């Protein structure tokens, strides 16, 4: 890359680089902003190196507090793809009619929150339409549903992860620990109505009235028939660390940690925003750099084999 940068400077047709102020994206379309960024860059860097080796990346940052969306486009000469991932075991319970279980081995970050872990399950297997994953871990004989803010350290601990495909439902305002048998649930009926019918049999109206003004909860209903546990694994999924997966990891949405927040110019506060890279313009010749050295402890070389096409 040092040689390429030197060639770019030597072959640059622009001797006196003009100063061009870059405007905020605001309500303009992506096409307009991207064209403006590329035109501005070409006015300062015009060479055959840029024509052949340079592309454009789109960065999207979303503030969860004020819903502000920040967009930026950046020229690039090479892609640095992450390799610091850990292969972990998980079992996915599918929501289809086959009551299918999939034993899988997927690549995940060595340390991340559950919120950042979910996209990696989506890369391994996209859930059915309208479904989302609920992740649980087995501690001894207990199954615990993980919360979005839970931090998982896959390099130091061995987790027994279960991913349940759960249909998306509207938020509710009741919490209960009472359960009923499977016959009380009919998937063809409205889920909310059935839940209320089940809960009403166990709730005291006066107590509900008193508690309703204090706290608001969400109901999470996971229907796992016993037949799940009578079946053998019907399928196995083993992710392969190849160039395609590395590119998907690069463009996976990430929720920033509390230790490295993003400053929102609208809120005027640091926020745990989500950020995502996308490829907007690819060059004729794409240079890929595999990040084989960890920047955090332990600082060592990553020797994972990466499969890539040679034709």
Automatic annotation (TrEMBL):
Residues 1-311 form the USP domain. It catalyses: Thiol-dependent hydrolysis of ester, thioester, amide, peptide and isopeptide bonds formed by the C-terminal Gly of ubiquitin (a 76-residue protein attached to proteins as an intracellular targeting signal). Keywords: Hydrolase, Protease, Thiol protease, Ubl conjugation pathway. Its EC number is 3.4.19.12. The keyword Protease applies. One of its GO terms (biological process) is proteolysis. The keyword Hydrolase applies. Signal peptide: none annotated. PROSITE patterns: USP_3. GO terms for molecular function: cysteine-type deubiquitinase activity. SUPFAM superfamilies: Cysteine proteinases. InterPro entries: Papain-like_cys_pep_sf, Peptidase_C19_UCH, Ub_carboxyl-term_hydrolase, USP. Belongs to the peptidase C19 family. This is ubiquitinyl hydrolase 1. It comes from Dibothriocephalus latus (Fish tapeworm).
